[in-house]
Specification:
It comes from Spirosoma flavum. By secondary structure, the protein is an alpha/beta fold. It folds into 2 domains: 253 residues, Zn peptidases (Aminopeptidase), CATH 3.40.630; 115 residues, Alpha-Beta Plaits, CATH 3.30.70. The protein contains 10 helices and 16 strands. The chain has an 8-stranded mixed beta sheet with strand order 1-2-4-3-5-16-6-15. Strands 10-12-8-13 form a 4-stranded antiparallel beta sheet, with helices on one face. It has a two-stranded antiparallel ribbon with strand order 7-14. The protein is elongated and about 75 Å long. 46% of the residues are buried.
Length: 379
């Protein structure tokens, strides 16, 4: 396998790392991927989801259809690493390893060119905007994708803290449901010497932030897991003669699944209604960056497990879902499939840390695992 020079995928990953682009702006990334994967002779290359790409392998319209997905976007984080492939874009870097995921999918394309599938079709999806939770939706709503109905859909994520190359998976929920909640508090401004003549939202905002903690169950092993993280707040201005009349509190919510998320958001809305009635402050809520839990199909999980063991990879069956969100969960709402993790190294900096980097040693084994999964579907 990998008859090409073995370092071309590492070189490609490093190129992507040097020129990262944030969600929805992956214009040059899309061009780089397209130019690189053409050498692996896909049947078609289609632009999808705005700045994504979809590669087709196989011509058979009657056989099984398999989708393998990788994410391509970077984060608005300034890199502190000083290695040769460090980010050249100020304030933007690949701190979740999507450059590595992209390189894995490119390596898989090379394997599919070398070992054509016997029947059916395989689609390789380079998906944009995973970090904002908008990329999967954009792909699923794109007419270029709508005619494809995968029988199986697979994806992976690298996992800092796990031994290099260890495959981590579980049936059922693999990642959390995640939703960001924006709460606005509208009162009335007044002179700061006469706050009683206005309606300052500060104490209502504080009450909400403190009382919401009682709705948490932060233990990830609990079936009632619910995490509420304040991420941003603003109120008034630095005009010290003015008592504020408007403020915002932004929270990120995490639960085991969509049903638990509905319960948690209903509890928070009820709390806000109670505080609004007590204070006279008008309260409004909005939601953004929604991530469905990745619901791993039992049969797809077993295929991942058996493929990993066949390749003699270490395998860990996780007992509880990861707390982070991943928008591949939207695909598992529509198609049977699964996401798995691959260890980035026990000493690897954590995801979204400014000193994180993807482990290049994962590119080949991850691509080979995907090929094994494809072989199972297309025998």
């Amino acid at each position: 396998m990998f008859s090409e020079k073995p370092n071309i995928f590492t070189q490609f990953r490093h190129e992507l790392h040097r020129f990262p682009e944030v969600s929805g702006q992956e214009v040059e990334t899309q061009k780089r991927i397209k130019a690189f994967v053409r050498q692996f002779n896909p049947v078609t290359i289609s632009e999808v989801g705005g700045t994504g790409l979809l590669l087709q392998y196989g011509h058979d319209d009657t056989g099984p259809v398999t989708l393998i997905r990788a994410d391509i976007d970077a984060l608005p984080i300034q890199e502190v690493n000083t290695f040769g492939h460090k980010s050249l874009i100020e304030g933007v870097s690949h701190k979740c390893g999507h450059d590595g995921h992209t390189a894995i999918l490119a390596a898989l394309a090379s394997l599919l060119a070398e070992y054509p599938i016997g029947k059916g079709r395989v689609y390789l999806l380079f998906q944009p905007a995973e970090e904002t939770g908008k990329g999967a939706e954009a792909v699923l709503n794109d007419p270029a994708f709508s005619a494809i109905r995968p029988d199986r859909a697979f994806a992976l994520h690298n996992l800092p803290g796990y031994k290099q190359g260890t495959i981590v998976c579980k049936p059922g929920s693999f990642t959390a449901s995640v939703l960001s909640m924006i709460v606005t508090f509208t009162g009335a401004v007044s002179h700061s010497a006469e706050p009683e003549k206005g309606l300052n939202p500060a104490y209502t905002m504080a009450d909400f932030t403190l009382k919401s903690r009682a709705l948490q169950q932060p233990n990830p092993q609990s079936d009632d897991f619910a995490l509420i993280t304040p991420v941003y707040t603003t109120m008034g201005s630095t005009s010290y003669g003015i008592s504020a009349g408007y403020g915002e509190v932004h929270l990120t919510l995490r639960t085991r699944n969509a049903k638990k998320m509905e319960t948690l958001t209903a509890q928070l809305v009820a709390l806000l209604a109670e505080l609004s009635a007590e204070s006279g402050i008008d309260v409004d809520t909005a939601y953004t960056e929604s991530f469905f839990a990745n619901e791993n199909d039992n049969a797809a999980f077993e295929q991942i497990k058996q493929s990993a063991l066949k390749l003699e990879y270490d395998f860990v069956e996780k007992q509880e879902p990861f707390k982070w969100g991943e928008d591949f969960g939207l695909f598992t709402q529509h198609y049977p499939g699964a996401m798995f993790g691959i260890g980035n190294g026990e000493d690897s900096p954590a995801l979204h840390n400014d000193d994180y980097d993807f482990n290049d040693n994962l590119i080949k084994p991850a691509a080979q695992l995907f090929l094994e999964l494809i072989d199972i579907q297309h025998k």
